[in-house]
Amino acid sequence: MRIIKTPLLIKWATPNLVWQLPAEKPTLYLTFDDGPIPEITPWVLETLHKYQAKATFFCVGDNVRKYPEVFQLIKDAGHSWGNHTFNHLQCTHVSRMEYLRNIQKADNLLKTNLFRPPHGKILPSLIHTLKSKYQLIMWDVMTYDFDKSLLPKQCFENVRNNAVSGSIVVMHDSLKTEKNLKYSLPATLDYYSAQGFGFAAIPMKSCLSPVR
Ligand SMILES: [Zn+2]
């Protein structure tokens, strides 16, 4: 079953995870996971620029290592960015030590206090450790743009039918989402701009202390 909008019960049960953000005026927080890559990320940046939209990029450290110039484009355009581990690790597949080291390895390049766990998987003990350094950013609306069985229009409808002011929305700047993203991102920007919404980056702070 696809959970498109995160249920309230899950949000209440996990007060240390951020699922949505307060917004004084109508605002969407678009987020892009798994980049940066030269094939897609520059297109995302150009598209956001057309709408004066800011967003947040949850970067895979190894992609930042391979494509530092694309990562620099994100920074230069005034967006924010988060840590998505160095190798897109799932915490349930590796030891706690390996997972934390992989995050630290990404942090050496990223220097951010935002973190999103790959596949949304996180354990209570990791939340406890990571929350001293990171804001753990989850989402309110998942587009499922990575699901090739979905039509591009359905990915957009997942946003339109569920996102409200303050919603954090997940998209992906990756090769497998290209077809869905190239329709659903402009459609989302068009639709919510016409409704008077703005598009903001999730605020970053300077890092507090190293993860132990
Ligand atoms: Zn991911």
Outline type: globular
Rg calc: 16 Å
Mean pLDDT: 95
The main sheet comes to: 6 strands, parallel
- Helix segment tally: 8
Number of strands: 9
Which structural class do you get from the secondary structure elements? alpha/beta
Q: Could you name the ranges where pLDDT drops below 50 across 5 or more consecutive residues? A: 207-212
The separation of the N and C termini measures: 36 Å
Helix content: 25-40%
Residues in β-strands, percent: 5-15%
How would you characterize this protein structure?
The longest helix is centred in the C-terminal third of the chain and has 17 residues. α7 links the parallel β7 and β8. The strands form 2 sheets. Strands 2, 3, 4, 7, 8 and 9 form a 6-stranded parallel sheet that branches. Strands 1-6-5 form a 3-stranded parallel sheet, with no helix packed on it. The C terminus is likely disordered. The chain has 8 helices and 9 strands. The radius of gyration is 16 Å and the shape is globular. It is an alpha/beta fold. The protein binds zinc ion. Zinc ion binds next to loops.
